[in-house]
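Notebook B, p. 112. Complex prediction, attempt 2.
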Amino acid sequence: MTVKEMREPTFLILTALAGGRKHGYALIAETDELSGHQVQLKVGTLYAALDRLASEGLVAVAGDEVADGRLRRYYELTAEGSAALADAAERASRIATAAKSRLQGPHPAPVISTRLGIA
Amino acid sequence: MNARHANAFQSAFRFHPRLWREQNELTAVSVLMDAAEATGRQHLSLSERASIYLHAASVWAEQVLNRAIRERVSSLALGTGMAMSVVYFVSFILMPMLDDAFMPMSKVVSATALLLPWVAAGLIRAVGYVRGVRAAMGIALVLCVSVVLLRLWQPELALPSTLTVLFFGLWSVAANLGRARGTLTWVTAGVVAVLGVTVVFAAGLVGRTLDTMLWTHLPYVAFLPLVSLFLGLFTAAACRRSTIAMSGTVYAGPWAIILIAGFLRDGQPMQVVALLMIAWAGVSGVVATTARIRHAGPPKTTVP
């Protein structure tokens, strides 16, 4: 996966897994928290994302466990997944820094007004 | 949450393939129950259910047309469409115009519109921008639909035939199924271009128009081998012989359907089609009962 193709849910899932192996519902809960409750993954969406990430070798199954009478499957980041997440995080950080820097600097002149000779 | 709720949640996965359910259903139901408990719900929301059904569709699609198959079909279709759009434009538009034949402007414009996305896709593929190829194929499909609609709205306008538009429309859909591979795309384009040019010259040599050649004379030469090839591939794919057979089936499907449609449209004797179908049914029956059906391994699906 190239860095520019990583969408927000994927980024959030990999970020959640960067903190250690997690089961399905823990991933849903953590992506919700990480996104400030802006991204609430549906179960089908999570499965589709995990299918894709597993086929790309970015995540792997890390065992099944029974807890409170429920079977839970755990997932973990692979080395490839960690590298992809690091790339994506670096890129996001670079863009965020640039955005903050420009917002703090002097605002550009209004282009349309200048072209019209009004400014 | 009691057993009744668990059963209700389990039923949400009834459209998933059996193998998937055997491997993943228990963990999937656990996630649904966790999510429902966290939000204080005792039933699935409509959007949750829809997302599960969509996932079921994607698992089925992945089983029938996995990535390798989609890439092959995409490459074959892209190569074919690129070559045939050029052959079509040169033989049906450019050559008649050079011979001073009357060519209505509507036909020139519509044929050019059909050609351009394929040329653009070829150029974009040459520089390796795969997303651009997909966009070009999307435009190609929109233009094909537009020509068909225009034909219905203005029947008196001279436009490319419906079969021509159908061919290019199906190729554009097939080309968008996956990521086209460079080598296979260019080899296909080369082979199809040589075949296309050969047919054009052959039509000229025997003194027929290309349309007459294609739909009156060529079927006797090409119909049986092409449709037989499709049916053979279809049988092999049904027996899960290989992904190549499946790729060939998906790619050859539109050809076979359109050839049969054209064959019937031109009033060709049905006995040929009937004989072919009977022969295919017999061979398929023998293959299906004697072949060792190799089931594909478990799908590459993962479930929380």
